[in-house]
């Protein structure tokens, strides 16, 4: 038996690990164990509940307004004895959060091989996204197996001469969509349940990135206010992140704006079905940039750059930047011009075909000489 320990801590990691955990559990030669750092609490628990995941270990480290040092130190301290006790053959981490970084480092310190899911995304800007760009680079140095979603991600890793094997698998977030999107769906969130999505054009908005906290997020709020004022039929739904630094800005700026609906974070089934029913997505989220193209929804990326250029090259996402005027103009063009909208609203899958988890499991088995290699995801 190969003992696989998966370590994660935030909402997006949990969503992207969930379909893989299901596949690991199905594999007879793998013993799958799970440790959550709980870098996020409520937002992580929402995902665990939806996918009915019961972690074997829960480090419960989240504190209000935690610093990067708090998360790193507490995750490392919690993981170290746990690795000694459980002695996994391989540790899996996902993405680029502080939990990802601490999980990979803790495993490396005990010479346990690390598998990095969602490897090789790069902006080449040290501070954007911060600290994620450097987290994922460090994990690239520490990892033995690199599961790159796309060929471009693989090329990024090869340019850095990472040690170990690189597999192109697709992104597991596309696998997650198979579990969530339903044609006739009744929302759990009461506000969403009461909405008639045919009575206008609904924009789904999210923003939480650290580098956007402060002025950029204020600019986003100002642009959104102008958009709903300019277009009578346009409404905005914004599930606001739990981070107090986000809420401190968003609620005073958008709380009383007509046609802007602010709600608490919704669970991922509500989220994916909401995305499937909205007209357009405006976001600085990594996950939403990947999910929206699969659901045929155009994306305005609320950032200066992106490590996910595949969607822009496919013509389904545009960079909106973080200045009020540019965000307003870019969005206005999509809302005004039906031809532009139609060219962007096509379902494409540059990030995965829903089989990433299968490929990752096969690659792990291959590493332990129990299978041939998986076929590459080709986009
Ligand atoms: C983290 C990740 C980021 C990821 C994001 C996903 C790092 C450095 N950043 O950022 O890459 O995109 O998660 O959402 O790892 N909070 C709660 N309840 C929750 C979650 C958060 O109250 O369930 C509050 C807490 O006050 C916490 C704060 O939000 O201190 C910030 O959380 P943290 O995980 O440190 O940073 P994020 O901005 O969420
Ligand atoms: N998401 C969710 N509920 C919300 C907002 C987002 O389930 O209220 C999901 C979203 O569909 C995606 C993931 O959370 O799968 C993205 O998480 P987030 O934006 O927090 O982090 P990022 O992807 O930017 O790291």
- Largest sheet, order of strands side by side? 3-2-1-4-5-6-7
Number of domains: 2
The whole-angstrom Rg is 20 Å
Order of helices and strands: EHEHEHEHEHEHEHHEHEHEHEHEHEHHH
Poorly predicted spans: none
The fourth-level CATH homologous superfamily of the largest domain is: Glycogen Phosphorylase B
Q: What class, by secondary structure content?
A: alpha/beta
CATH class value of the largest domain: Alpha Beta
Q: What would CATH call the architecture of the largest domain?
A: 3-Layer(aba) Sandwich
What characterizes the major β-sheet? 7 strands, parallel
Distance between the termini: 33 Å
- Our count of helices gives 16
Bound molecules: uridine-diphosphate-N-acetylglucosamine, uridine-5'-diphosphate
What is the residue-averaged pLDDT? 97
Number of strands: 13
Helix content: 40-55%
Shape: globular
CATH topology of the largest domain: Rossmann fold
Structure, described:
This protein is of the alpha/beta class. It folds into two domains: 2-171 and 352-367, Glycogen Phosphorylase B (Rossmann fold, 3-Layer(aba) Sandwich); 190-345, Rossmann fold. 45% of the residues lie in helices and 16% in strands. The chain has 16 helices and 13 strands. It has helices at residues 11-26, 42-50, 68-86, 98-109, 132-142, 151-159, 172-180, 190-193, 215-230, 244-254, 268-277, 286-294, 309-313, 324-336, 338-344, 356-367; strands at residues 2-8, 30-36, 57-58, 90-94, 114-117, 145-148, 165-168, 201-206, 234-239, 260-263, 280-283, 299-301, 317-319. The strands form two sheets. The protein has a seven-stranded parallel β-sheet, with helices on both faces. A six-stranded parallel β-sheet has the order 10-9-8-11-12-13, with helices on both faces. α13 links the parallel β12 (299-301) and β13 (317-319). α1 runs parallel beside α2 (42-50), α1 (11-26) packs across α7 and α4 (98-109) runs parallel beside α5 (132-142). It is globular. The two termini are 33 Å apart. The mean pLDDT is 97.
